[in-house]
# Entry
Amino acid sequence: MTVSTEINHEEYVGNGVTSVFPYRFRILKASNMVVVSIAPNGTETTLILNTGFTVSGVGSYAGGNVTLPNPLPEGWGLTLTRVLPAIQETDLRNQGTFFAETHEDAFDYLTMLIQQVGSWFTLALRKPTFLSKFYDAKKNRIANLADPVSAQDAVTKGYADSVVQLNLNKTLRVPESFIEELPDKTSRSGKLLAFNDQGRPIVVLPESGSAADVLVTLASISGYSYLGELQSVADFIGFVKQDGARVNLKSWHKGWAATAEGKPVGGGSFIYRANVPKAKHNGGTHISPTVPWDGLQSSIAAYLTGAGETDPTGLGCWVRDYQCKVNLTWFGTRGDGATDDVASIQAFRDYLVSQPKKKKGYIPAGVYSHSSGPNWAVKGIHLVGDGKHNTILKCTTSTRAFNIDASEYGQAVVYDVVVENLCIEGHVTCQNLLYVENTSHITMRNVNSREANPLTGTALKLLFTVASVFENFTCSINEQAMVSRPYYGIHLGVSPSRNLKSTCNQFKNPIIEGVMGSGIRLTSADLNTFIGGTSEANGQYGVTLDAGSRMNTFKGMGFESNPTADILDGGTNTVIKQCYTGTAIILLNTSKRAQISGGLHERIETQTGCDSAEISNLTINYFKKGNGGYVDNGFATAWVRIWDEILQAYVYPKKPRTAITVGATPFTYSNDSRGFESVLMVGGNVTQILFKRDADTANMGTSSGQIFLAPGDQLVISYSTAPAMSRIPMGENHT
# Structure
């Protein structure tokens, strides 16, 4: 027979009566049967053959019985399991007699061993599936677990109980099983813990003037201020305390008139650090008590640099305790629009640069006048103001009001400079309000600009600036009065130090209004995108693009009140999409493959030499000024669905017919226009007309008339008397 069942064990529960327990599987020897009794408390006992039990049916395929000397008590468990030693006892000889039953027994033995191993796996702690991230104990306990060592080790009950008890022993406890929770943070603030007549926790105010009242007050965030404070940084001179002592600085400058608003600024909390070198003194975040200062504005620069330090190699500094952005006022700025804060701004910049990671600086509202500004071309610098009309950096002398120029440091490019929420103000001789050269991945948000040279000045000059974002950049007479308006608003060009273009930048909602020349100027710039915003009411142009500019896009912008032209394009592959222009779009003789689509416009003009412009799906004469419409002197211009607001109809721009000088017979005419055209042939005595397209030639006979040619097509005309010929450019004029 075969091993016809997978059963290799039996399980029983005692009833106090039964002592004979059947099993349904084959065993080869009585010793193959292992019997285990399980007490109600979980204790397991392996019974001994012929002492604790006897077995019948050895060798039978149907199984047999296990008999206990006494009935199994009620509630006890009993398992009968076949356990075979992993050996092979069958000895077969080559060319010996074939004993089928001997072979079958050997195979049965192997099968039963496999079943035995399989049954062991059913007892293992296993994952439900190969993809499972847990082991399923199937509601069984896991016993004899070691105490945890690593953070992710399983925890035993004994270990958990000990930790709970240890923490409980450190806790103020009550004998009751429940106690109400304390009030919230706001309700607890500044109060003492007490218990009412029901034993419930409450908070009460300490008696005014009591020791408890004083201690609670001193323990508050501003508690040390009740112990006195320093009036200005000058009070740090000679002021030495024990390590860790804390003091409050009321204001960097003495007195309440430190700013235009009449408020003290630059103060804060300081901690004395006895082991900090005095060489770290910078007057803002680290203050040495042995650096002298007479309190005068004229000597601030010397104080900030530590000039006059009497103990240059010594230790012991007051260190500012802060968790916020570095504040410009910490370095002694007045911010009153009159005092020259140049030294303080430089110290602020130098400290930011010295930070290994966070280089974020905060410039509060105020007018920070400075004769010259530092170079901010340092990776990771992040400047944040209080708003583009509230925080004003006012340059009074330098030709660059705000400078981000990596070339000054000999760097090929600097990354990750962020400037937001402030205003840059220049003066009548200022050439560049914001000068940016050799930079990449920079960000400007909500930056305003004003006051520069009206003949040559620029609000935002970008030379070799790459993959950067400029959002809500403003230079507008509608937002502020300007005594000296710059000539250019935004200028993108080539870096003189590297001779590389500005590329792949994005401008979101630029507002350029009322500059003296061109609102946006691209002298040599590729793949820049302008989205939304406006360039209007400028002295000459809204936008100008020179021949060195390629693949620049203007989308959803407004242009009006620019007297010469709203857009003057001489670049390549310029895209103007869904804009409106109130004066004119002029495509110059260097303009190539410009695309103007959508929007409302007054006048569109292509000049002689303009090549392959595509003008489509837009309206002309929208503002009805009397000088609108279209003028097409370009080469291979495509006009598609052009709506005339005055005519209330689609218009079809047409170019005039021009004569063709007929040469000697046979005369070959080639359509070299790169556009479609018709050739009109009249009179003469034509003997043959051949049409040629690439390698294909067709005889068209001798009839005169109008022949339609695609770009590159040729006509070979043989005649005895020359006909009169003319060409009619066709373009793509259709609705």
Q: What stands out?
A: Residues 100-122 form the longest helix (23 residues). The chain has a mean pLDDT of 89. The CA atoms of residues 550 and 572 lie 5 Å apart. The helical segments are 100-122, 157-169, 185-188, 211-218, 300-304, 342-354.
